[in-house]
């Protein structure tokens, strides 16, 4: 995969309201980032969505989901899709390496899972900061949460605190971009509950690590997602091959 960008921003007028607060949201196509986008809009931000295809297993479906979000959310003023092959070339993850199988869910595991993409969030945040500075944004939202940082080192609060320092030091003196990880102390269930309150169209989001359709229902991402809806007594609106119960 060659590095390239697709900027669909021609359909938006990003200078229509120059005095409004504006935020970049890293839009993976999943439910956490979609909820983060709706939360940013609820807080009064105009939203610039950044979606990255880096060779992950379900990149086509994830892009479709992120693109759908750009249409569904009225606050979106720009949508940037970046294709980059370097994370796939580096490998070391079941999300990017066909030789590494995606493991079945183990919601009680403490070790770093095979789905960890080495230092991915630093790469994605760096691109997002460039985008945010170019668009004169005030904030950058990422949907990482507490059940992520138990297994992924680049989802920990300390990582985002450190990255904020990098942003402050490495951008123009007049640039002031706040790294916002609003769910960093939340569970997946907390996120789903808030998203349902905000009217997030979860039917247009995708979380499965294995398949474009239907979702497998048995990888970590599917399990955490299904568990969140099950705890709330709600039915996840996407299609699954299996819907195991993940609640006691």
Automatic annotation (TrEMBL):
Pathway: Purine metabolism; 7-cyano-7-deazaguanine biosynthesis. InterPro entries: QueC, Rossmann-like_a/b/a_fold. Keywords: ATP-binding, Ligase, Metal-binding, Nucleotide-binding, Zinc. It catalyses: 7-carboxy-7-carbaguanine + NH4(+) + 2 ATP = 7-cyano-7-carbaguanine + 2 AMP + 2 diphosphate + 2 H(+). Its EC number is 6.3.4.20. ATP binds at residues 27-37. It is an enzyme of class 6 (ligase). Its cofactor is Zn(2+). GO terms for molecular function: ATP binding; ligase activity, forming carbon-nitrogen bonds; zinc ion binding. Pfam families: QueC. NCBIfam families: 7-cyano-7-deazaguanine synthase QueC. Catalyzes the ATP-dependent conversion of 7-carboxy-7-deazaguanine (CDG) to 7-cyano-7-deazaguanine (preQ(0)). This is 7-cyano-7-deazaguanine synthase. The lineage of its organism: Archaea, Methanobacteriati, Methanobacteriota, Stenosarchaea group, Halobacteria. The gene is queC.
């Amino acid at each position: 995969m060659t590095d390239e960008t697709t900027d669909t921003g021609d359909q938006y007028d990003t200078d229509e309201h120059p005095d409004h607060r504006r935020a970049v949201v890293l839009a993976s196509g999943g439910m956490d980032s979609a909820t983060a986008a709706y939360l940013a809009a609820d807080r009064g931000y105009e939203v610039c969505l950044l979606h990255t295809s880096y060779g992950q297993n379900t990149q086509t479906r994830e892009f479709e989901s992120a693109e759908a979000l750009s249409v569904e959310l009225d606050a979106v003023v720009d949508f940037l899709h970046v294709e980059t092959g370097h994370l796939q070339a580096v490998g070391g993850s079941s999300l990017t390496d066909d030789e590494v199988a995606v493991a079945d869910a183990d919601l009680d595991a403490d070790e770093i899972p095979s789905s960890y993409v080495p230092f991915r969030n630093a790469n994605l945040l760096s691109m997002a900061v460039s985008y945010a500075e170019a668009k004169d944004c005030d904030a950058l939202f990422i949907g990482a949460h507490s059940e992520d940082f138990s297994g992924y080192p680049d989802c920990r609060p300390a990582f985002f605190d450190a990255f904020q320092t990098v942003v402050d030091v490495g951008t123009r003196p007049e640039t002031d971009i706040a790294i916002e990880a609003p769910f960093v102390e939340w569970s997946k269930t907390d996120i789903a509950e808030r998203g349902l309150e905000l009217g997030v169209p979860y039917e247009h989001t995708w979380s499965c690590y294995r398949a474009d359709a239907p979702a497998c229902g048995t990888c970590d991402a599917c399990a955490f997602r299904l568990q969140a809806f099950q705890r709330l007594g709600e039915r996840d609106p996407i299609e699954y091959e299996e819907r195991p119960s993940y609640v006691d």
